[in-house]
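Incident log, entry 3
Record: Spheroidene monooxygenase (245 residues)
Problem: checksum mismatch between cached and fresh output.
Input:
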Amino acid sequence: MNAVPELVTLHVWRTSRAALPRALTRMAVDPRRLRALPGARFGKLLGTGTGTGFGPGDADLTRWAALTVWDSPAAAAGFDDSAVGRAWARIAHASARVDLRPLTSRGEWSGQRPFGDPPGGRVTGPVLALTRARLRARRAATFWRAIPPVAAALRDAPGLLARFGVGEAPLGWQGTVSVWRDPTDLVAFAYRHPEHRAAIMRTPTEGWYAEELFARFEVRDVVGDRSVLGWVADGGPETVKGGRA
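Fresh output:
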């Protein structure tokens, strides 16, 4: 799949601890239903982490997410009324949706290139960075030991608006979502921060990943409760359309 989608959505739900059995049921039942929605090219249901360690002890069992690649905005508009959307709405006490346009994408996810080959382009507003990888089991412990300095640096990075970890399974399927005030802040952290640069340079030699993907998106809209996204700064009403601090 090389065509660049017009719209990618990230839905995030906050549930209570009492709702954990129902959330786990949804995680077992809904992945196939999500991919089968009309107009959905690609879809993943994700567990999340706090974004402080990105290791096995970082899981947040009260927050869940769905990343979906759509044929069109009209197809995406039907999500809330779908069986998947209604099921999560019933167990969530807060939620948010982020509308995204792919800017760059490198690598694969489950053997696919879900965001195609975006041409890039100049963006002056908020951007979202998505990283995900399938860890090699024999290299997982080394990876988790290398992450704490990067996570600590990310927490205090200038221009960071939100961050959290994501995963398709408790172990081995790791990823991060981060939202930045503008692309220059993201680039400054990704390529100039010493801890992050050190991790990047170790990746080829350590062989941490069996599969990896790195993508950046223009944030076109944020609807709902930003706190569900782990918002750590107020982007201001002029920065993110439709957002709620």
